[in-house]
Amino acid sequence: MSLHGRAPSFLVTVLALASWACSLAFPAFSDYSGRLLSGLNTLLCGWLGPLNLTFAWYANIFFLAAVARLLRGGTTRLTPLLALIISLDTLRFTSYPLNEGGATAAIYGYGFGAFLWFLSLTLLLIAAGLRLKEQNDGRETSGKRLFFMGSMLALALLTATVCFSVRDRIIANRAEQHRLEKILFKRTAVCSAPEPEASRQVSIPDGPLEVRVPRHASKAHYPFSQIKDYLKWGVRTVRFGGRDYTIRNVAGEMVLVSNPAAIPATALLEVEDQEEAIVARLSDQYLNRVIFEQKWAAEPTGRRYYYCPDYHTSPSQNQQPRKLLVEALGLTEEAVLPDDVFYNKMPYETVEGEVSGLATRHQSREERIQAWRQAHPGDMSFPYRVMVNYNCPDNIGWDRLDNEPINNTGNPFVIDGQSYYWGLDGYRAYCDGPYVYIYQVFSHFSGKGKYTLNITRRTLPELQYIWTRLVQFKVPGETTIDNTYEIQGFREARGVAEAVLVHYQSGNALSLTFPVVVEDKGE
């Protein structure tokens, strides 16, 4: 199609269409993780915007309708205006869905594709104004108004884009500079706060680091409430809720262990979970001085996931707040523990078990509760340790401790006040003299009556690992899918083990036998 001799309105219309088409090839938006949404991606998916109560995508319909009319030689006034007005709803486009599960990503900034798209809408206004002026039918005044409006909007768009782009790059901190590399400017105010640095240090070679975080903190929960994270970063002992947590070699295994606090803390880390910010303060308890006080302000994204300066819930060695804390404590890379230190993979075997019924009936859970209450008159509670341990002394077994963040340590196995954490939840214990059997019974969804017993044998009180078996078995005539069995008896002889499984509700007992080959530990 030759453009020679064409009217100015036609040429500007073609330019508007070209700008719109080019916008599809460039990034239109980016999110905080650096993902780019091209104009084409936005065009293909934007029609779903009403699900998020945004309608800017529908400006494309009015734009293309106006372009088609102008290219055919017609005139239009309302359609280009509607396209421009609807496009302004882009300013309410603050997040987009990541998957069908409802996860979303917040929009960080606008790219060259978004600029070209808005530019095409202003050029369309100019073209519509020129067309009215070219008609000489008394609508020249309306044409001049449209032409002036489109020209001023195009100039304002160009000026604002240049100003915002230059301003953001001048005042942005290093992390923001990196995110701005592939876009024009940020949707909200750019962060100029410098990366946190520790101006002082406190050495904690032996004394514990005490951490105080609000129990119901939501924003600061990760990573400041994660005991395991501090230990992996190189902190030897972490005090949380009046207990000292450390990694210890227990019978050849690296295990998380805690004891009641006994000595003064060397350093104190206090974290505040404020309405619009997270504040962390580290102080030297011996010298009574503040090492650092850092504030991370929440970004106005409608969510609490992004902060100024950068804050990461699972920080690497060079990310905050881990980097700041490690520098302030003078920790070295050699002190960092491997990620799998808390996940000991012990050897196990899968075996088939045989089930037979027992004539004797055992105590159901309700009967155990009533028996405990009769032995403890006036106390209507039922301790957790009584529920999950059987035949164990009061000072041995699974327990729950006050003020303990079990969501990141798991429930402790306690021996004489010392707690051991294998990261296990929902497990039970059966004690038999110098041994303890730690187990879990769970049902299969593949068929009713099918179960697996995951059972580990350890010595007491050393907790020396002996063996683990995954015992698969089927309960004849079972019509429900549940995991309501516990061990109330156990014996082992000649390489064969027999467990007495008792149903919580009925008290009916089953005998489960399975092969055991004890590994020689050199004892």
Commentary on this structure:
28% of the residues lie in helices and 28% in strands. It is α+β, with helices and mostly antiparallel strands and 523 residues long. It has three domains: 8-186, no CATH class; 209-342, no CATH class; 349-515, no CATH class. It has an eleven-stranded mixed β-sheet with strand order 13-12-11-10-6-7-8-9-19-18-17. A six-stranded mixed β-sheet has the order 14-23-22-21-20-16. Strand 22 and strand 23 (465-474) form a beta hairpin. Helix 3 (59-71) runs antiparallel to helix 4. Residues 518-523 have low confidence and may be disordered.
* Form type: elongated
- Radius of gyration, rounded? 34 Å
- Indicate the proportion of strand residues: 25-35%
Portion of residues within helices:
25-40%
Structural class call reads alpha+beta
**Mean pLDDT score, rounded?**
88
Give the N-to-C terminal Cα separation.
92 Å
DSSP helical segment count: 13
Question: Segments where pLDDT lies below 50 for 5+ residues?
Answer: 518-523
Largest beta-sheet characterization: 11 strands, mixed
Enumerate the strands of the largest sheet in spatial order, edge to edge or round the barrel: 13-12-11-10-6-7-8-9-19-18-17
Task: Provide the number of structural domains.
Answer: 3
Number of strands: 26
